[in-house]
Amino acid sequence: MDGLCSEDKLLVERMVNGYCRSGLLLGEDKRNRLCDIESQLAKTVAEFTANISNDASKLLFTRNELSGLPATFFADKPLVTTNGVEKYVICVTKPNSMLVLRLATLEETRKAMYVALFTKCPNNIELLQQAVDLRQEKAKILGFKSHASYTLDDLSMNNPDMVLDMLNTLRTQLTPMARRELAQLRAIKQADCESKGLEFTDFYDWDLAYYKRTKTECTHNIDSTLIKSYFHVPDVVCRLFALFEEIMQLRFCKVDASVWHPLVELYEVWDTNGFVGHCYLDLYARPRKYANGATFHIRSGFTRKTGAREYPAVALVTNFVQPTNGEPALLSHANLKTLVHEMGHVLHNLCSVTKWSMFHGTRVCRDFVECPSQMLENLIWTPSVLQKLGVHYQTKQPIPLCIVDAIIAAKPQVAGVFYLQKLFYAVYDISIYHSPSLHVDASLVYNTLEKNVALCNTGGIETIGAATTRQVVRGYDSKCFVYLWGQALAADMFSTRFGRDGVFNQQTWMEYRNVILRPGGSTDIMNCVHQFLGRKPQYNAFFTQIGLD
To answer: Which residues are catalytic?
Structure first.
């Protein structure tokens, strides 16, 4: 490979390794079986995800049963009459379920939504099992101990036992913290029931989001509705783009273009050196749309043989409530976190400059892919940034410092439970894909770990949450731990560099852009992290961030 640049050499190495991992060195019979497995996997994964996207589960509630939900929630909900009673038709989607579980004052309403959410797509259990079994068989044919061993082989955290050790260490520290938090929430619910003359039975999963919000609002005097009034979607987007121009010299310019839906917007992105790429924003929920927040490559950047650049195009997708009937589209602080997280992926794809599209943007080692987005999330926990982003949609007054302080102070609330849930998915994922046997009961493992790791209490109701674990089946199989791993790296980078240099320090942000974002996957990303930090990564900042110090 004499005469090749480092990126060319890496391309050749990755291609050769990819051929070997695809079975090129195997005998004909094994290669044929691998082809069959890949074909079956493609169909299984496609059917699994389509079942989630096309699920039409609905619940009927009266207006009283939905007490606690804001008027905007009902704007696009159809009414039907059942036995002479008007009821709203509520689709069991992630956006709807999150709002009901967080805001509905009646426990029976929350319970009904929870049960509907975690018992839908029953056919997916069989498809999940097929995907796990096929991947295990494929790994064995290729000479790996398990699918997890095969998947992690080319990552930074390249050994399943290393991942399990990390997760077990975190579990040991998080579990006592989460138990204390759950005991506090249980006491809050008990007091709430007594004040309303209701029987208290126990604290269940469908109570978690509601009483977490109640605890946060009571402890820190937070009014969630008031907070949302300061984060009007169009204003937030405009101010985010202004912030990116200030700290990273990126200018977003809206253009008129043919797009796939009237609410989708297209932006050209420029910097001081010229054109950077295109960014689509598809922010509002609609039927049959992809239900989660995500960022999608439309076109990757690369260098043509002529030396000309092919510029990237990326789409940011979220499911915020549409503006309807004069009601504006407003964001909760959690919604703002989602938007900024996905913006992190957008910036990674826009700022990356690689010779080959294979290495562009988020095409880094999978265990680093979430880190730049988690780095950016730190902004919305920074008072000076929140004051830049928050402006009342009616009065145009900036968000008061007392509200900002309350938001920041509320961050550690129920952090143990929150991160234990993340850890549960990571443990579940690595457990089903790192079994020594060819067959592991994926649904049974889910239900067992949900109770033992996540400390869930479903009140004896049989749920099938595994049926909607999209990431475990598609894209993040054996790699759900990357959210925790990436957050540890992100906390260290943000605390170390921006904690010292200042959150608006353009020089540091440009160094971050050039050292961390620009290379994409064209070099060893952990060396880049080391260069940016000036040392090897440490995890003290992460532990401090989640309240474990």
So the answer is: 342
